[in-house]
Amino acid sequence: MLLQRSQHAKAVADVYTFAASFLRSYEANQIFQIPVSLFLQELLSYQEGFSKHYADSLDGCGLAQEGRVRESYYSFIRRLTEALHSTHRQELDKKVVPAYEYTQACLLHLLDVDWQPYDLTFITEVNLPTLYLNIAKETVKMRECTYGTEEEENEMKEYEKCMKWFEDCSNGFEKWYDSMKKEDKDEKKAVQMFVARFCDLLDVEVSCDGCDVTLPGRRYRCLQCEDMDLCATCYVGGVKPEGEHTHDHDMVHLVYKCNNCQAFIVGTRIHCNVCEDFDLCFGCHEKGAFPAEHNANHDITKFPLIKLKTSQDSDSMIQSYIHQHVWLLFTILAMSTGDIIHPEQPQGMVDHDYVKLAEHLQSQCMEIATHCLKQVPDDAEDSSKIAQGDQLDMRAIQSKQEEAFAIHTQERIMGLLGAMIPREEKITNMGNKYNFTTKEFIQLLFKIARGETGHEVNTRHLAMGLLGPLLTKCDLEVSDQAVESDSPKDNTADLIGWSSVKYLFSFGADCLEKCGLEWACSVSRILQSLYCSPDWRTVILHHLRTCVQNLTSEPDLPAIFALFVMAGFPEVLTIGSIVQFNHTSMDRKTGVVLKHYPDRYQTLIVEIKTRKRYTIQDKYVDCHSSIPDLLDSNHLSVFVSNVKTIVLELRADKELTPETVWVMSLCLKVLNKTLKSSDHCISEELFDPGFIQCLVYIASKGTEFSQQWLLKDLEVLSLMLFTNEGSSSTYKKGKSLPFSEQLAEALEKHSKASKEQNEASESATSDEDGMASDSDSSSLTFSVSDNETEGKSDVNKVFGDLDEKTKVMFETLHSDLKLPLDVLRVIYDMNNKNPDDVVKAIVENLERSARAKEDIKRLSQKWESIVHAKTPEAALASASSDKIIDTGIHYHPVFKYTNRCLDKASEEEWVENQKLIQTPDNDLEDDIQKTQRSKSAELLKQELEKQGRKSSREYIYKVNMAMSVLYARQVLTSLLAKWPAHGPVINTELLGCKDIQQIPCVLDLLNKSESKSRFQMVVDRVVHHCERESLIPIASTAGQFMEEVTLSSITKESPHDYKEDAAVKEKIQLPGASCLRISFDNKCSLKGSCDSLVFSSTCDLLQNKHEFSMENSSNWASFQIPGDTVYYEFCCTTSKDGKSGWGYKFTVTAGTRDSFETGYAILNKVLSTDLALSLPLKELWEILVYVSTKQTGQQRLKAIQLLLKIIHTQASLPPDSVMDLDLGLLKPLWIMYNNSTKSEVMTGTLVTPVIRALTELFLQVESLAMDRGIVTQYLLAIQDIDEIRKVVGQGIMNVAAIGIMINYPNYATELVTLMKNKKKQS
């Protein structure tokens, strides 16, 4: 065996030696010849499969033979690499290029081995990393750029067709798409292009036809093929998908989106030179469909369609293969060096000399990769910059190839650099060089992340992701040097790392101001990860301490960003966020967000474990945040002081800026986060009466927003509105002119445009010129032409499409104030097409300012009434939405006397198949939370569309105040839930209440905004730490809460018996409900298997679906639907015998957390403790019996439960104690109980929960009456007197009849005889 291996090794060495000798017979530049290609082909044809290493199967042949094989292999490879190093493709004759490419492919095949540490010397000698990247750059598919020549008329036709299709898709994309499959080939291609452009709006997922990866955004699309898209990697590698696509097809880079219709622009692009990052498609521009931040007076540039096509003559598939293969080899080499330097196991350690070589190679790979990143031009997104034809010389072509490779491979390079960074669990020797924390590399990542270069957005996100782990391991001095090269050195602080921390906080503030929430969250995550490092913690705390101390002065954006770092940004789905999600199973999975689609409420996620991609609805995705506690004791005092100071200013009616209110909300957020994360009291300062009163004052306010808003969505709204408004990001900075001068300038432009359109209108033009000159004064004087006043105004002609309210407003201003429509149009454009700003501008600038305000107020009432008269359903919708507005605390009036005597108890309508005391269903609670998230996300989207990118500071103030209110409630809840045993007594003085009855009102407010379990903790602490004498009014008020309950409900029923035309599909909505309870009449029945009644929470009847059919009433069980809306559909057919079922009858009841639940929670807690003995049991008994008599369903069951606890408390008293409970009040309940039990015995139905509860109640009451010896009084009190008389009379008659039959006189016979005599006498 050893001899055979030795002979095999000798043969392999001889082959490699001969091959090297053969190649040496050619000059380096002559090696790319047909004989060499044939030789290499013949050589490789004898290789069996793909060997992992050139020395495979040579174990045991001896060191000498192994060395000979190695040297011969090195000699062979060295000859090939020398030839490729010294030759460039552009220098060769076109006839030689195929041999050159074949030689490259053969060399890559020979180099595709599992390199061992002893090979590193050779790899360094032949400079493989450089060779790999040079080959990759050479094989980049270069593109020629041509400009589209589509006529504007055709573009408009295409635009109108797409808009019509998009409108048709509103009724269902799948239905529309199926209807379009019957069209011809050209129409199919047009349909696919429409889908590709509007994919983000149509909920269509696009995949790369080359590698099948999901494309979250920009991509390359073929203009000739019916449906072909490529990612940047496949595009630059020249991948040719299966099908009709070829390299000579025209491609378009889908990168720009229209800011109005949100579709990818394929055609003429209109770029605004005034707005920041603003583009329109040609159709939206021509139609005048502008977002709020843009108007027709802005300076624009038109860019034609840019088509891309392969510029190389050969359509070589081997070139694409070489490009992909060489990149893989470069990646493997770079990764393998890291495995040698940082092995996973101690036994994986190699010789120190090999580690040094690996460090050198890794450093070389990084230098090459970072050099490529630096070659990305600043205008990389402009596709016209890539390649421009054959007129370039060799150096220019190489430069263009390198630039094209850098542009299209930047994301792959950044991903490779991230993969090269060793994981935490890998072993690192103290003497090893760490190539990732150099000054140059950190500096490059900062430049890319800040957007100072032309790198793509995904590359910037990857750079941001790398900065976190790298800065954690980076030396603080090196980091300071990296940031100080871009910014002046800060000599004010001697603390090492201060420059870096200051730079990061400044970077975060800039992101918050200019880039938006997503980038600010990324910087915040970096700082939070650095805080976990002991080296950085001191520096970050020092900076935070400085920011916190400056909050008392006018707060600025860096200070606000520092607060967000401490409190955490709202949990939004940004690129790189770690999330928990469940796709199709109950198992929770962990993933990373690749892209968020807010318009579709969906997120593209890659699972960390399997690397699979999923598109998940937002309601099934939860952010996984682990924010470290950045608060120290010094910060706590400052935050408490800030809150108290701002609240005092509010109480003094001082005007506060939105920033100040924002600071208050963030201070409260930090405190709330700290309270929730700690298990013990942090500081007694938090329980100071002054601070508690401030919290109650803020928490008692209303948010003036819908109760369906979630706090995190309000935070997102505030951030997006503030950064866009406060930073002037919508417009480029310039000199601000007075309104009159702006109007004059705009009117002048408008008049010139009108003159060019119609030179015959000289009189109208002169009127406008005069108007412009008159408007130079501080107030406006409007002149009116005769034609304008005499003729009827045509608002639609001047303004285009307007909503009804805005149209009526302009008609009213024109007719009543005699304002020309042209002037109104100019003012409308100047104010970003915001009707409210138009009215404000007119009021502020009319000459008769005082009278103008009165006129505008009168006219506003006029056009509001007109609009409501025209659209009564809008007024109805508005009235419905007002019911769910958060109006703050509600102080219930105290009733000194209430008539609680009822003659009859409310009947339970239908059977409820449920537990005696219903427990919350976890699945339902999750569904409710998911529905609330969807509702809140929808409100956020609507509000952002309504406010646009620029909002008033008054509105931002309102949003920030709403956040402060909600956070104040959370902080107050957290404090009360963790009230210390040694803490102050909870009384009216502490809470700032006028009387004790207001304490339950405060608890009621907290119950509406917190979870049930957390509220139970609050009630427990308040009950145990309040003054003993205050329990009586608190319990009385809680009982009053239970009396006031009113639940909204809607009843729907079919005809009985129903007919075939009874089919119906409707929507039921009870605004403000957290869930809806649906219960059925026990007569419900349907005939036939095809008849069905379906309920769902969505209009497509798919989510939370409940279906009922057939006659069996036991199947018609009650159920709950999350949210405030339920859809139902009744389908019926004609049976063969012509008969049908009874039909359906159901009631939809709103499930809300109302004052009833607050009162129940308080009384349930008090009555469950020894404190119940101190309560006015007589009054509570009367209240709860009244509630049990009046209410039905769950409310009645909970009242009966409390009645049982009162009976238990009364029974625990000594037998000689006074009996305070009036058992006679139970009479209406006893009558209902008697009647119900009789009917259930006769029908044989199941015992309902209410009957079971009443049975337990009367058994306990009877036991109590027996113990106290008042059974007779009790029975007389609850029985009906007429019924007793009837029963006694019948008994006397029966006894008398028996006595007469047996001839035995008794009192009964005497009484009967006496009664007969009286009747005769009468």
Explain what you see.
This protein is 54% helix and 8% strand. β9 and β10 form a beta hairpin. The protein has 1322 residues and is of the alpha+beta class. The strands form 6 sheets. It has a 5-stranded antiparallel beta sheet, with no helix packed on it. 36% of the residues are buried. The chain has 49 helices and 21 strands. α2 runs parallel beside α4, α14 (352-374) packs across α15 (394-420) and α16 packs across α18 (476-484). This is ZZ-type domain-containing protein. Keywords: Metal-binding, Zinc, Zinc-finger. Residues 203-259, 253-308 form the ZZ-type domain. One of its GO terms (molecular function) is zinc ion binding. Residues 748-795 are annotated as: Disordered.
Low-pLDDT runs of 5+ residues are 383-391, 725-743, 760-793, 847-852, 867-883, 911-922
Rg over C-alpha atoms, rounded to the nearest angstrom: 41 Å
> Could you give a short account of the major beta sheet?
5 strands, antiparallel
| Helix segment tally | 49
InterPro entries: Znf_ZZ, Znf_ZZ_sf, ZZEF1
Biased composition (Low complexity): 772-786
Protein name: ZZ-type domain-containing protein
Domain ZZ-type: 203-259, 253-308
